Known about the structure:
One of its GO terms (molecular function) is glucosamine-1-phosphate N-acetyltransferase activity. By secondary structure, this protein is of the alpha/beta class. 30% of the residues lie in helices and 23% in strands. It has a single domain (3-252), classed as Alpha-Beta Complex (Spore Coat Polysaccharide Biosynthesis Protein SpsA, Chain A), CATH 3.90.550.10. It has ten helices and eleven strands.
Amino acid sequence: MEAWAILLAAGKGTRMKSELPKVLHPVGGVPMIVRLVDKLEAMPITGIVAVVGHRGELVEKCLGTRVTYAFQKQQLGTAHAVLQAEPLLKGRSGSTLVLTGDTPLIRPSTIERLLAAQRAGASAGVVLTAIVQDPTGYGRIIRDAVSGEVVDIIEEKDATPEQKRITEINTGIFCFDNESLFEALPGITNANAQQEYYLTDIVKVMRQRGISGAHKRFGAVTLEDGTEVMGINTPEQLEEANRAFYARKGIFA
């Protein structure tokens, strides 16, 4: 069965205080996105699509022909970014991983678990989650009280006080049935606090359209070590990621 990967690498990374695209900042001496591509190339992945935007020519120069490129002219949200890969992937069967380009510490074994979970359950999608002490700033995972199935992901700015107390968070990393992914994407709107097209809304859209639910659940794989998917949005977080990398180089390399 074919497997594809979409790398989200279009963001400006304004808080990095650098003209360099965020995904090109090094962790362990290697640009973040290169670390991700290295890991994916070591797996049975059919093809990799990098969605680029801000100074995308620098990302292209860095990765060359190792990936195929899709261009996001306006940063309108993560769902909009994934939609830019539609001309390259729509109509293909198999599984599609969606990874953020600023998660270089994710372990290959975690990516493999996510892919295996989607295939084993024939799921419309599977989200990678983590349990954290302080979930502030992250999307919260909403599960059915009876079945435990993931039924929604609520962004922090749209969450109720009760939802903000949930400590299971969205890491921004998914694995989808490819056909289900591109069937659901057009149903995502920007009716939210940020007026962005959130990929997280795909859980709700898939249920509304009957793409998931019943026999085709939306699953989850939960991380035990949230360090793998720590966000890197500031110079301080970049330093923290480098410390984590060198402290456990054999794990995160």
